[in-house]
Specification:
Layout: E1 6-8, E2 15-17, E3 30-33, E4 43-51, E5 55-63, E6 67-70, E7 86-89, E8 96-102, E9 108-116, E10 121-125, E11 137-138, H1 139-153, E12 177-183, H2 194-206, H3 213-222, H4 227-237, E13 240-244, E14 249-253, H5 261-283, E15 291-294, H6 297-309, H7 313-321, H8 343-355, E16 365-370, E17 375-381, E18 391-394, E19 399-402, H9 405-430, E20 436-443, E21 448-455, H10 456-469, H11 479-484, H12 514-520, H13 537-549, H14 553-577, E22 582-585, H15 590-595, E23 606-609, H16 612-627, H17 631-643, H18 649-661, H19 665-676, H20 682-699, H21 702-710, H22 719-733, H23 741-750, H24 759-774, H25 778-792, H26 795-805
Parallel strand pairs: 17-20, 22-23
Antiparallel strand pairs: 1-5, 2-3, 3-4, 4-5, 5-6, 6-7, 7-8, 8-9, 9-10, 10-11, 12-15, 13-14, 16-17, 18-19, 20-21
């Protein structure tokens, strides 16, 4: 062995001693090193014999693709596979692969088999049993021990089955220990406040003298959390934890309006800790359920490291699967199909792909797409050092070592660059029409950003394979930083789509395509505007009437009547002059205008915008009558109000209030049904169901009333009052158990009451959204997508909405 060159091992060099192996010469120590000296691009580690405390002699080289080579000095280039001494090979789809060793004659001999994955743990399969059949090892250790046994010591026949003494060397044992009782790490996390769930878990582990390896590692990971700060943020920021099934990851919800960028980074760091532990459980095959066996604490740390270092495995999958799914799954959410390769298809597909990713850290992003040159620009929030491990297990020392803040920051930067590669792959997988993408990693606490540009052909030809090679490499090494350095570009993420497509309807005179004309009862985008000019003279007169109401109600009422009559006359004149059937309508917002056609049966009818002053004057007049108890007059004005404001929430509320005071509960029910048909806002839905419950109760239909109370959404202004009245009604009915949701829905549907958001409403909004986006009317499309998200809670729609609105 004396011919091998000596490599000096620096203090920070990654090295690991291996246990004593069968056939190993006495008084020798072998191990692996992977950043102590130059290593080829596809290299995983060198196999070395340690000489003293700071030097080693190279005896072999392990590549990342299952090959081991004889080597006596650092290599500059990857050796040819034809020169490999040991090779792992496995047919696609098979669980068991073959271990091939080169013989003296130069041929490969099938020595044994193996199970496991290069990104997880591995074990030899052989009869009779060998040293490696008794141990689960990570890839580097597995390959190094096989190479030493079969290619260096040449003592494979002498393998004992019994464990070999470690001679005082600390190594990571990946074997599992059967537990006395099953352990559930995330017990009660879904039903308990996050600070309490974490504190309870830590207490359980600390109180257990025989805690398992996964419990001890969970304690090590979570004990670094500043619990007083978490409790404070949970109090002011409405922090709660959700589990997203389709991505197998935890997600922290909070009220961002009251939290700083540092607060969010702190919470996202906690979220990353939970997802790292979840990933370890996944690699153990347990998921979130109880585990009956566990590896050691150090082995869990090794699995954690493997999970983090394997994030670029998504690149492989996205590149290989891109040809299997060229279009979005939600291509016709409302019945009308999107244009293949069009705006909806590409944008929705990208959101669908990204929402399926679990990169362990919070993936928050927004993007824009410019179809004419196939460019996607995407910004994501970079992980901070809080998301990285605070400790590592040093095999050489046989002890845990703190990872300092500066190192964790380097790791976070490296991880962000690897996530950037994953997101670039996602962009190209979204559509063959995407030729280039720009990815920005934005660190919100420091307001720093890194931007990279990727070309589709180059990415698929070379960058994707190099991203694959990053799997299993240390985050401290900065391999991704070297890879993306050449792709760095200046600037800041911003919209890239043409401004013409973003214009408000008032500034957009483009003709609508035929299918949109029929859906929206309009011929141009400008006809869909609902925002009035600031200088409208009617609004000045309305303001004067309101001032008069403070001192002279009779004068104010007269002024309002005069203003209403004048505006109505103008509106009637415009309807008569229209060359098509026309109605005058007031809409509170653009969405109200887009859903108005649900109340207009004739597709030939066109909509003329009612001046704001007409609506507010009518509302003011009704309120004056209501305030002085003139309910009959208020009823007349409230009916007129709803007639020309069919989608207005406040118009429905006004008429319902008047009818209820007149105890006209049959009419209350009809008006509420009318409002629920197009309701999508939770607060509005809550109020409508609350008034409907009271109306049915007064009509003597207690069961339907109770069902309506049950359908009042929780957490809204009226919810507590509704719950109290529901309890009183149950008492009068002699009931002790409330209706479940399905029962309530069945009851109200039998009474002809819509359950919002109705299928009719969603399909209409979805069809409009698809057509608006595909035809380049982004301003209105963004508002439709936002409402679709509000109605369904679908994460992909939330991302698409945020990206279109550029929030």
């Amino acid at each position: 062995m004396g011919a091998e060159k000596t490599v000096r091992l620096t203090l920070l060099a990654h090295k690991k001693r291996l246990p004593e192996l069968p056939g190993q010469p006495s008084d020798t120590r072998y191990g692996i090193v992977w950043d102590a000296c130059p290593i080829p691009h596809r290299g995983s580690c060198y196999v070395v014999r340690f000489v003293g405390h700071a030097e080693a002699q190279i005896v072999g080289y392990i590549s990342r693709d299952g090959c081991a080579f004889h080597a006596s000095e650092p290599l500059e280039e990857d050796p040819s596979h034809n020169t490999a001494s040991l090779v792992l090979t496995r047919e696609k789809g098979e669980k068991v692969g073959a271990v091939l060793v080169r013989t003296a004659a130069g041929d490969f001999e099938h020595i044994s088999d193996f199970r496991g994955a290069l990104a997880g743990t591995m074990r030899e399969v052989a009869e009779p049993a060998t040293w490696n059949t008794e141990r689960n090892l990570a890839y580097r250790e597995f390959m190094a021990t096989l190479y030493l046994r079969y290619c260096v010591f040449l003592q494979e026949d002498a393998d004992p089955v019994a464990p070999v003494a470690h001679s005082g060397v600390s190594v990571i044992d990946m074997n599992y220990e059967q537990l006395a009782a099953p352990v559930e790490i995330f017990r009660d996390f879904k039903s308990t406040l996050l600070p309490d769930a974490i504190a309870t878990l830590l207490f359980r582990i600390e109180a257990n003298d025989h805690a398992s390896g996964i419990e001890r590692y969970a304690h090590r990971v979570l004990a670094t959390i500043d619990m007083p700060r978490l409790r404070s943020l949970a109090t002011i920021g409405e922090v709660n934890l959700a589990y997203i099934e389709h991505m197998n990851g935890f997600y922290i919800n909070c009220n961002r309006d009251v939290l700083t960028a540092d607060d969010l980074a702190f919470l996202f760091g906690i979220e990353a800790r939970l997802n790292r532990l979840s990933a370890i459980l996944g690699r153990m095959g347990a998921g979130l359920g109880p585990v009956a066996s566990s590896p050691s604490e150090a082995a869990c740390a090794e699995l954690d490291r493997v999970s983090l270092e394997s994030v670029t495995s998504h690149v492989d999958r996205l590149v290989h699967e891109s040809g299997e799914s060229l279009h979005c799954a939600w291509s016709e959410p409302g019945g009308i199909a999107c244009r293949p390769g069009g705006e909806w298809d590409v944008r929705m597909h990208l959101a669908e792909i990204c929402e399926q990713l679990n990169v362990l850290v919070r993936l928050e992003y927004r993007f824009d797409y410019r179809a004419q040159d196939g460019l996607i620009s995407l910004q994501f929030i970079a992980p901070t050092s809080d998301a990285m491990p605070f400790h590592r297990y040093d095999c050489c020392l046989g002890a845990w070592v703190d990872i300092d803040c500066a190192t964790r920051e380097r790791m976070a930067k490296e991880y962000a660059r690897r996530v950037a590669l994953v997101l670039a792959a996602a962009c190209f997988a979204a559509s063959p029409s995407v030729e280039r993408c720009e990815i920005e990693a934005f660190d919100t606490p420091s307001d720093q950003r890194e931007r990279y540009a990727f070309d589709r052909a180059e990415f698929r030809a070379s960058i994707a394979s190099r991203a694959h090679d990053l799997m299993g490499t240390s985050l401290v090494d900065g391999g991704a930083g070297e890879l993306v350095a050449r792709m760095a570009i200046p600037g800041t993420f911003c919209r890239i789509v043409d401004n013409e497509l973003l214009r408000m309807p008032r500034d957009d005179n483009r003709l609508l395509p035929d299918d949109l004309r029929e859906l929206l009862h309009a011929d141009t985008a400008a006809e869909l505007e609902v925002v009035e000019d600031e200088g409208d003279p009617y609004r000045i007169r309305l303001a004067r009437a309101r001032e008069a109401a403070e001192s002279d109600l009779a004068s104010a009422e007269s002024m309002l009547h005069e203003l209403i009559d004048e505006i109505e006359a103008v509106c009637v004149g415009e309807e008569l002059l229209s060359n098509r059937p026309a109605v005058t309508q007031f809409c509170e917002n653009h969405v109200g205008r887009l859903i108005l056609p649900l109340y207009l049966p004739d597709v030939e009818t066109r909509v003329l915008r009612a001046p704001d002053a007409l609506y507010f004057a009518q509302h003011e007049l009704c309120a004056l009558h209501l305030a002085r108890g003139a309910l009959d007059l208020a009823l007349v004005e409230a009916r007129r109000l709803l007639d020309f404001a069919s989608t207005s929430t406040q118009a429905h509320f006004m008429l319902i209030n008047v009818l209820a005071r007149l105890r006209m509960f049959d009419d209350v029910i009809e008006v509420v049904k009318h409002g629920l048909r197009t309701a999508y806002d939770r607060d509005a839905i809550a109020y409508l169901y609350y008034r409907l419950a009271f109306a049915y109760w007064n009509r003597g239909d207690r069961l339907t009333a109770l069902a309506c109370y049950r359908l009042v959404p929780a957490g809204e202004h009226i919810s507590a009052v509704a719950q109290e009245e529901a309890r009183e009604l149950m008492g009068r009915m002699g009931l002790t158990t409330p209706l479940d949701f399905k029962q309530a829905v069945t009851i109200v549907k039998a009474a002809g009451v819509p359950v919002p958001p109705t299928e009719e409403l969603f399909n209409h909004v979805a069809n409009v959204a698809v057509l608006l986006l595909d035809n380049g009317f982004f301003y209105l499309a963004a508002r439709c997508v936002y409402i679709m998200w509000r109605m369904t809670g679908k994460d992909e729609l939330g991302v698409l909405s945020k990206s279109l609105l550029m929030e």
